[in-house]
Design brief:
Strand content: 25-35%
Radius of gyration: 29 Å
Structural class: alpha+beta
Helix content: 25-40%
Number of helices: 15
């Protein structure tokens, strides 16, 4: 039976966003006869509409297929798809842990990008066999020789092993399958040992409950087994096991080396988290698979329905979405300006956009998101440490002994001519230059340390516009650093508007405040009285604009006569405006929040 294991190959495809990962997966599955003309569609492993439209992979997926190689043997191949975006880095690391080798795709027309390197390092840490693949050789701008040089110089891989293909046309894709069977090792592990399997992804199904996708390292798993999830410390009884051939295909059992799924009446995705270890309750593995960690939200924002009466629908929607995405955390929040909503924690900005888009599409909601912030750490004068992700919880300055914010190490890969633009952008964002490395004559890798709060505030858009779209970015968290933080409030007619208050670095407060009030000045309609708009930190006003009052020409009925009569009427009008200002309230239209929160220059 060991022979069966010798013909299993578990592999993954890693690449920068838009280098052709999903297209190559499509071609491999066609050759493996998993898809035919009836079931064929582009990006077949991307199951969500958003994934197909944006051309990105959000959820890790997998497909098993058989391939008869030129040596006459039939190999059972398990392709484990990975998300390409930096927000889902932890999921990529779990998917790679389930493999023995990876295909590393480099776009022959664009070369090495930041996430190609980040994912390569992940694969190297796990000691996987790496096969370089040069894609898009059918494009006129493809430069195979230059790409080979980059593979050798920047990635440190053997350029002779690189396979030149076009995933779109199917050119040389058969060579990729041959390389997988020859170069990627068969899985090790014994089916005699106690069961040890890694959950590399899970999703919620309305009929079966949670379906956990597994890579079995040791042992055997079959229907009726009583399993234990080691990190969650919960046990369940298996009702179905099987493999994934695009659809779920039940089998009698899974054993060492296999990739498949298990259904065991699990109700919440949080009970079968990515990275957990499955073992048998009465015959446990000696230790779990290394490297489990809870996915930590990095970015926090308020989420409110534009129509207040949609709040109940939003509660229902976000709870259903949580069933499928255990990385989201949320708690109820109440804002004077926006009503009832949630404070939601996301893995990153892309994750935030996707969650909002899914809620709006799948549940037909109109939502507004407040400006994203990060989790700050405040040590107060009594020496207790507070973690703050919401400006409303920020303490007064006199109670703060020390304030800290999360920093990231950002890697930017760019053509040489844009280095000056990037340096001035990063300096503006309070970044510190750490390292410069030439990947080739034209491509440079820059490494910076900068605050996460600056990275999530327009950084990516500005990076793309400053480099005409050529630069690519990857980042990882490196812990907290001390920083001078303040809470900036926006006052309209003397009243603070809670939805617009933000936590900013002291040096940025005035600039940020000025840009917000200039926008508000154009959007808030004029009233019968003058409205002051101010940006303030504590009692100190940093910037101010006034919206002038609507005026009625009260002197129109005076024809000639003494000037004092006109003055008397104007004084009377002035008194009326003064009284109105004290009792009148300012209506801030919804567009004002939308415009300010879509923070652009």
């Amino acid at each position: 039976m060991e022979d069966r294991q010798a013909f299993i190959r578990n592999f993954s495809i890693i690449a920068h966003v838009d280098h052709g990962k999903s297209t190559l997966a499509d071609r491999l599955l066609e050759i493996g006869l998993v898809t035919n003309n009836r079931t064929k569609k582009d990006q077949i492993l991307d199951s969500m509409d958003i994934e197909r439209e944006r051309g990105i992979t959000i959820k890790a997926n997998n497909a098993s297929f058989d391939y008869t190689a030129k040596d006459g043997h039939t190999y059972h191949l398990n392709l484990i798809d990975t998300p390409g975006h930096v927000d889902f880095n932890y999921e990529v690391s779990r998917s790679l842990l389930a493999c023995e080798g990876v295909l590393l795709i480099v776009d022959a027309s664009q070369g090495v990008e930041a996430q190609t390197l980040a994912n390569l390092y992940l694969a190297m840490e796990l000691d996987l066999k790496i096969i370089p693949v040069m894609n898009k050789i059918d494009l006129p701008s493809a430069d195979i020789e230059k790409t080979k040089e980059l593979i050798e110089d920047a990635l440190g891989l053997d350029p002779e092993e690189a396979i030149a293909i076009s995933a779109k046309t199917g050119l040389n894709v058969q060579d990729v399958l041959e390389a997988i069977t020859k170069l990627i090792p068969a899985p090790k592990g014994s089916k005699e040992k106690p069961l040890k399997a890694l959950v590399y992804d899970s999703f919620f199904d309305n009929y079966m409950g949670v379906v956990a996708k597994l890579r079995v390292f040791d042992g055997k798993l079959k229907k009726g087994d009583n399993i234990l999830l080691m990190n969650a410390d919960k046990d369940f009884t298996v009702t179905e096991v099987g493999i994934n051939r695009l659809g779920l295909l039940p089998t009698t059992h899974l054993e060492a080396g296999d990739v498949g799924y298990v259904v065991a009446g699990i109700k919440k995705v949080a009970d079968a988290k990515t990275g957990d270890t499955v073992t048998l309750k009465n015959n446990q593995a000696d230790r779990p698979v290394q490297g489990f960690k809870d996915a930590k939200p990095m970015v926090f924002a308020g989420l409110f329905p534009i129509n207040g009466e949609d709040f109940d629908t939003l509660v229902d929607a976000i709870e259903k979405l949580k069933l499928n995405d255990s990385a989201i955390i949320f708690e109820r929040e109440n804002s004077l300006a926006l009503g009832f909503g949630f404070r939601v924690g996301y893995l990153g900005l892309l994750h935030m956009e996707i969650v909002q888009e899914r809620l709006e599409r799948e549940f037909n909601l109109d939502l507004i998101t407040t400006a994203p912030s990060v989790k700050y750490r405040i040590t107060d004068v009594r020496d207790s440490v507070l973690e703050i992700d919401n400006p409303s919880k920020f303490p007064d300055t006199q109670f703060i002994a020390k304030s800290e914010e999360p920093f990231v190490k950002a890697t930017i890969i760019t053509p040489e001519e844009y280095v000056g633009n990037i340096m001035s952008l990063v300096m503006d964002k309070r970044g510190v230059h750490m390292d410069t490395m030439y990947l080739s004559k034209e491509k440079i890798q820059l490494t910076y340390e900068l605050p996460l709060a600056e990275l999530i505030f327009e950084f990516y858009d500005k990076l793309k516009s400053n480099t005409k779209g050529y630069a690519s970015l990857d980042y990882e968290e490196i812990g907290y650093r001390e920083s001078k933080l303040v809470k900036m409030e926006i006052l309209v007619n003397g009243e603070p508007v809670d939805a617009l208050s933000t936590i900013v670095h002291k040096s940025k407060a005035e600039e940020r405040g000025r840009s917000i009030i200039e926008k508000l000045k154009d959007i808030i309609p004029r009233h019968q009285f003058m409205i002051p708009i101010q940006a303030a930190v504590g009692a100190k006003v940093l910037a101010r604009e006034s919206i002038s009052a609507l005026r009625k020409n009260v002197t129109a009925k005076c024809y000639g006569g003494d000037i004092s009569r006109k003055k008397k009427l104007l004084e009377k009008q002035k008194e009326g405006k003064k009284r109105m200002k004290q009792i009148g309230s300012v209506e801030i239209p919804q567009e004002a929040f939308l415009a300010v929160l879509k923070t652009s220059d």
